[in-house]
């Protein structure tokens, strides 16, 4: 059950802090959300291309994307609006989880390639 803290408004009447969650977003907010959605879509498209990349290239791309998504997640967390929370929980967090899986998978593939190279050179693994 959501709880609301009371704060004094400009006319000194108590109001609910959560009231701004029900207001209609302005044009700038809608543009920012649309921009974020486009950026997230580009990351999903990049995920689909990973099968053609070498494991070390994937690791570099995943690291960069994860860093950016962490920043986006922080911005959405601070915004605190219902729309920002929805975008964070339904889009950003699952993408971060997907990237984590990609990192683990390609890190293992990279280790296997290094081991294969060392074996081909006659070095112990």
Textual characterization of the structure:
The N terminus is likely disordered. The chain has a domain of 71 residues. Strand 1 and strand 2 form a beta hairpin. Helix 1 packs parallel to helix 3 and helix 2 packs antiparallel against helix 3. The chain is elongated. The chain has 125 residues and is mostly helical.
Q: Could you give the topology of this structure?
A:
Blueprint: E1 6-8, E2 14-16, H1 27-49, H2 55-79, H3 82-120
Antiparallel strand pairs: 1-2
Explain briefly what this protein structure is.
With 125 residues, the chain is mainly alpha-helical. The chain contains 3 helices and 2 strands.
Net shape: elongated
- Which regions have little confidence, pLDDT < 50, spanning 5+ residues? 1-24
Strand content: under 5%
Q: What letter string, H or E per element, gives the SSE order?
A: EEHHH
Characteristic terms for this protein:
mainly alpha; 3 helices; two-stranded antiparallel sheet; elongated; 125 residues
């Amino acid at each position: 059950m959501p709880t609301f803290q009371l704060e004094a408004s400009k006319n000194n009447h108590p109001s609910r802090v959560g009231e701004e969650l029900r207001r209609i977003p302005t044009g700038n907010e809608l543009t920012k959300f649309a921009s974020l959605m486009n950026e997230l879509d580009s990351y999903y498209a990049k995920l689909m291309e990973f099968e053609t990349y070498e494991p070390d290239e994937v690791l570099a791309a995943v690291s960069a994307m994860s860093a950016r998504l962490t920043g986006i997640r922080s911005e959405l967390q601070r915004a605190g609006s219902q729309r920002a929370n929805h975008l964070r929980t339904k889009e950003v967090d699952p993408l971060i989880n997907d990237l984590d899986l990609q990192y683990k998978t390609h890190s293992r593939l990279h280790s296997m390639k290094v081991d294969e190279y060392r074996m081909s050179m006659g070095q112990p693994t």
